[in-house]
Specification:
Layout lengths: L3 E12 L2 E12 L12
Length: about 40
């Protein structure tokens, strides 16, 4: 059983030929909070 409330493995994102996220892994343990905030809030 996982101890993470969220786990993303080997995430990739491209816009056209531009790869902006390359093999990123993110783990958020249970009971913790995580936010991604950018220019749009």
């Amino acid at each position: 059983m996982s101890t993470y409330s969220l786990e993303l493995k080997d995430v990739r994102k491209s816009f056209g030929k531009s790869e902006i996220i390359r093999g990123t892994t993110l783990r958020v343990p249970k009971g913790e909070r995580f936010a991604v905030i950018g220019p749009n809030g």
